[in-house]
Amino acid sequence: MSHVKLEWVDDVAVVTTANPPAELFDHGQIEGLVSAVEQATEKRARAMVIQSNSPLFSGGADVGLFLDKDRAGAREFLSEAMEAIWAIEDAPFPVVAAVNGLCYAAGLELALACDFIYASDDAVFSQVEALIGVTTFLGGAYRLAERCGPGIAREIVYTAGNYSAEQFAQWHIVNRVVPLADLHEEAHAVARRIARGPAVAHGVTKRMIRHALTNDSRSADSFVLDEATVVFETRDMQNAVTALLEQGARKFRANHHEIVFEGR
């Protein structure tokens, strides 16, 4: 049965998806992911990890949901699925995808919605939609293009080929490749490191990058002036700048791990 489990490790929300045996993306996963982000936001999470405890991350969408749908029915279903993608992208905290095994179609699109991807050395990625005569319905083509450029994105989508984690890392789609046994530990470690940082600033950075990707650089500059300046009013910035001025750059850098960011 499809379900999504939300657990906590300090200020990190750990989301584990499950839909055995193929780990298919369906209504249960959509609702569970949206709910997990909502709960994590309410409880002021400072980072999130999305992972699977099965031998694969995702076999893609449950294509049984595609049958006997006209355009209106498809739009309704896909609008619901998009809510999960948007929830992750709009979450006010960084989200790390920890991908192992097969990561196909909607599963890859889910990973692409995250801020970055850690992959195990056994991970295999593919946008397989062309094999059944469809395109990427949850933004795979253009979210790939954001990371690797349009030419490589077209190859991935048109050929529906399988690609290793190392190849995706070379194309800047995957951030880091780690041994399978270390995947969750590594993903949780970077999430904890992020969570110890300035939460307000990280949230602004996430929104700023998304704004820049959907607008031009001049519009992004205006976003900085209108929105990013909120960090000047945070205790995190004021306390850290005060420490820097008191200690000097060299000592501050050496002792930076001692700085406590309150997330406000």
Automatic annotation (TrEMBL):
Span of the signal peptide: none
Gene3D superfamilies listed in its UniProt record: 2-enoyl-CoA Hydratase, Chain A, domain 1
Family in the record: Belongs to the enoyl-CoA hydratase/isomerase family.
Name of the molecule in the record: Enoyl-CoA hydratase/isomerase family protein
Native source species: Nocardioides vastitatis
